[in-house]
Every structure is written in structure tokens, then in C-alpha cells.
Design goal:
Layout: H1 5-23, H2 29-32, H3 35-56, E1 61-65, H4 69-73, E2 80-83, E3 94-98, H5 102-123, H6 130-144, H7 149-171, H8 175-178, H9 193-202, H10 207-210, H11 212-221, H12 228-248, H13 262-285, H14 293-300, H15 302-320, H16 328-352, H17 357-363
Antiparallel strand pairs: 1-3, 2-3
Helix pairs in contact: 1-3, 1-13, 1-14, 1-15, 3-6, 3-11, 3-13, 5-6, 7-11, 12-13
């Protein structure tokens, strides 16, 4: 299955927004807050659905030429049986190898992301996005598997929206104790029930309601698929919701990230959907211009740049400014300094290699 450049470009926009919010913030924070994250979560659901579609078309077994006793004893081929025919000659023996389960492969990737996220959180920077994404990945694969996957995903989406305000009414009092004066969540320092609350209820990216975004992304890919007509309708619908929530959002209720309320999720989710749908519509109608190619390559290296900008720029700035209160000018210099190196290096890398390091390692999981 070939890549969709529009999704890569949208992911590239998310990378730019994420790095900007980490390093600069400033007055644009009230406008950009949460939108890059919403883009990532929505795109993640679309990517997972596309992977599941691709995995359904993979063969259950793979026929390989027999290579003697070594092939028969190799642990790399797993369970197999010998049979005649289908080899390089009419009478050459082959080995029918049981292919790796697509669901198992996707679950291994989720586990790899969770383990990496936990290690990165503990030893480098207390990021709270990788582990929730891995957990959502497992849930989405489980819900989307099977013939009725599309209906199950739709039902789960509705349940998440219903459960979010109810859970905040019932357990909202924990926010006062779970969030510390320094702006960190208690699960950054302890493990137990607070970890569960952070992942499900009151963290930066709790399942309720952030799981709704990847579920929405999966639903957008399933069914009729990413057609031009569907993309056009989604663009105008999502743009209308974005304008309404931006202009009259206060009438819908408090729009806060902590806890993540439904009005806030509707605002950032609709803007993410509008951008993705608009790019897909543009790509299907005229093709994306070449000027967007650097953004697309940046999007293909999103995990690498997420980790790299934290290790190379954000973490050193925190050593100089423990309270993360560096001047906006310092943040802008760091932002454009990182991009001035990251963009050309990314272009040069993709001229020689199909994937960047972290994405390549994750694909092999």
C-alpha cells in the first residue's frame, strides 16, 4: 500500500506545531494549544486503520525454497511443513512457512512504543504521550478487528463521548490531588492507582476523551474510504465546527485541557479534521505542490523529531531554566535553529534511506 502524501504533510504540520509549543508557546498558545496533539492522535487512528486493511490482504503462509537441514531447523521460520512443488523447479521442495500474525505484529509495535515511552519518560523527560498512544493502539486494534469492526469503532466512539463528562463529575475531585504545584502529574513521581487515573481520567492525554480522536480517524478510513467527495464534505463540515467552537465555544461549556473537556476536544479535533480533509481533497483534486514535500518528509520522521528535539534542545533548555520560563526570543531562536538543521538533514537522509532510524526500528518490531 503506497503512502498518502496528504497524511504525511499533515503529520509534518503537527511536528512543526508540537516543537513550537514546546519551545516557544507565547501568545499563540491559546490558539494552538492541543491542536498539534489532536492532529497526531487523529492521524494515528487513520494510520492504524490503513495498517489493518493492509494486514487483511497478507497471506497466511509464505512458500520458501527448501535450503536443507538448516532451513528445517531454523527458528526464524517458525512452524512449517514440507511439501512438493512451487519451488524454483517443478520438483524442488519448498517450505510452507506460517506467516507472522498481522495482529501479533501490530501488537508488538504497540508494546515496543509503550516500553520505549516508559524508558524515555523515566530517564530523559516525563513525556506522557507515548504510553497513552500505545495503549490506545492496542484498544483500537482490538475494537477494529473482525467483520463488525466498523460498527464497534463507532459504538466505542459514542461511549467515550458519553463516559467523559460522567467520569469527570464522579472523579473530578482527584485533579486537585493528582496535579502538583510545579505543573506535573503525580504519576510522574509515583506508580499505582494514580497511574491508572492519569492514563484514563485526568492526565495530559487520558483515554477519556482522547481515545475518541484515533477512533474517529479509524472510522474515516473504513467504509467508503478516503474519496475526494468524502474529503470535501468532511473539510467543510469540520471547518464549520471549528469556526463555531472558536467563536462561540464558551456557550458550549468550559474548554480546558486539564481536565480535557468535550468542548475543548471538539475545538481541537475539528480543526485537525479540517486540515487533514482539506489536504486529502487538495491531493485528490490537483495533487499537492512540490513545496509541501519537505513537510511530508518531516511528517514521515515525526517520532524521530519528537525524541530528537527533546533530547537536543528542550532538555538542555530545562537545565538552564528549570521552571521552563525562558524568554520567547530564546524559544524562537531554538525553534528556528533546530528546523534549520532538521529540515535539510531530513531531506538528505531520505535521499539515501527509506526510513529514519526510530521509525525503521519500530517498523521491525
Amino acid at each position: 500500500m503506497s503512502r498518502l502524501p496528504a497524511l504525511d504533510v499533515a503529520r509534518g504540520v503537527a511536528v512543526l506545531g508540537m516543537i513550537y509549543m514546546h519551545l516557544v508557546g507565547s501568545k499563540l498558545a491559546t490558539i494552538l494549544e492541543g491542536r498539534a496533539a489532536a492532529l497526531f492522535f487523529l492521524l494515528a487512528g487513520m494510520a492504524w486503520a490503513l495498517q489493518m486493511k493492509r494486514s487483511r490482504g497478507m497471506p497466511r503462509t509464505v512458500n520458501l525454497p527448501a535450503l536443507g537441514p538448516l532451513a528445517a531447523s531454523s527458528s526464524l521460520v517458525g512452524k512449517f511443513r514440507r511439501r512438493r512443488g512451487g519451488g524454483t523447479t517443478p520438483h524442488s521442495p519448498t517450505i510452507s512457512v506460517a506467516a507472522s500474525s498481522p495482529q501479533g505484529r501490530l501488537m508488538r509495535r504497540a508494546l515496543t512504543l509503550a516500553v520505549f515511552g516508559a524508558i524515555f519518560h523515566h530517564f530523559v523527560w516525563p513525556t506522557e504521550v507515548l504510553v497513552p498512544l500505545a495503549l490506545m493502539m492496542v484498544l483500537c486494534f482490538g475494537l477494529g478487528h473482525g467483520k463488525k469492526g466498523q460498527r464497534v469503532i463507532g459504538a466505542a466512539f459514542v461511549l467515550v463521548l458519553i463516559a467523559t463528562p460522567l467520569s469527570q463529575l464522579r472523579f473530578g475531585h482527584f485533579i486537585a490531588t493528582d496535579w502538583q504545584d510545579d505543573g506535573s502529574h503525580l504519576m510522574d513521581h509515583a506508580f499505582g492507582a494514580v497511574t491508572l487515573r492519569g492514563l484514563v481520567l485526568d492526565g495530559n492525554y487520558p483515554l477519556l476523551p482522547w481515545l475518541a480522536l484515533p477512533l474517529l480517524g479509524m472510522s474515516a478510513v473504513s467504509g467508503a474510504g478516503l474519496t475526494r467527495t468524502r474529503a470535501r464534505r468532511c473539510f467543510w463540515g469540520a471547518l464549520s465546527v471549528t469556526l463555531i467552537t472558536q467563536l462561540w465555544g464558551e456557550q458550549l461549556g468550559p474548554a480546558t485541557w486539564i481536565p480535557t473537556t468535550l468542548p475543548f476536544l471538539l475545538r481541537i479535533g475539528s480543526s485537525a479534521a479540517a486540515l487533514i480533509a482539506g489536504l486529502l481533497w487538495w491531493e485528490s483534486a490537483r495533487g499537492l505542490p512540490k513545496i509541501t514535500q519537505p513537510l511530508g518528509l518531516l511528517g514521515r520522521a515525526s517520532l524521530t523529531h519528537y525524541v530528537l528535539h527533546i533530547v537536543a534542545v528542550f532538555a538542555p533548555l530545562r537545565l538552564l531554566y528549570p521552571d521552563e520560563d525562558w524568554p520567547a526570543r530564546t524559544g524562537l531562536l531554538a525553534y528556528f535553529g533546530y528546523l534549520s538543521l532538521a529540515l535539510p538533514l531530513t531531506l538528505l537522509w531520505f535521499r539515501r534511506f527509506p526510513r529514519v532510524p526510530l521509525e525503521s526500528l519500530w517498523a521491525r518490531a
